[in-house]
Amino acid sequence: PKASSELVLVDLSEAQREKTAEYVGIYRKKMAEGSMGNFHLGMITRLGLVAIHAALDEGYKFDTALTGGDDLPKPDDYSSPKFDAVAQRVLAQAACGHIVFVEPLAAQIWLKETLIRAGIPAARIALLNAKSAPSAADRRKIADAFNRGEYTVVIANAVAGEGANLQRRTCAVHNVDIPWDPMTRRQRNGRADRQGNENEALI
Description:
The chain is α/β, with parallel strands linked by helices. 40% of the residues lie in helices and 9% in strands. It has 6 helices and 4 strands. It has a 4-stranded parallel beta sheet, with helices on both faces. The two termini are 13 Å apart.
């Protein structure tokens, strides 16, 4: 089966809009002062994090995403417009497999919580990253279970972007964030758009 692509546009939340405006203001001020170098890349990175979730630029990690810690409060809300959009699309096709790519580990945790609250059982969701699956054997175990239909959703980052055999029953690949280079996105989509997939994947 051939894959097709869809661009899904979502509005920012009020908190995301406020932070985006704050960062744009800082950027304009620094530009007027003649700032150069790594400042630009740092600002683009922060804006990209905020576009995923309003709190993602605050330093949350895998171990602090749910409870806070390291001077970080417990997040007020795990959901975001992008996470909600993914949940809606997964629920619309819950009988097949979904791979969701997002790099930050805190975002993976928050997305999982959003999916659970939308009605997808926690046992049907797997995280595929270097923390949750540190070894190649761990990653193969998750991939095999996904291909057998034991998971509806695999939330992954670069760990699954190349070499992971997740294609058998994948009907959609969701890119919550956009990689810096086109090859990485091609590798992500290649988890589904490859020989052996039983479905026409949407990427």
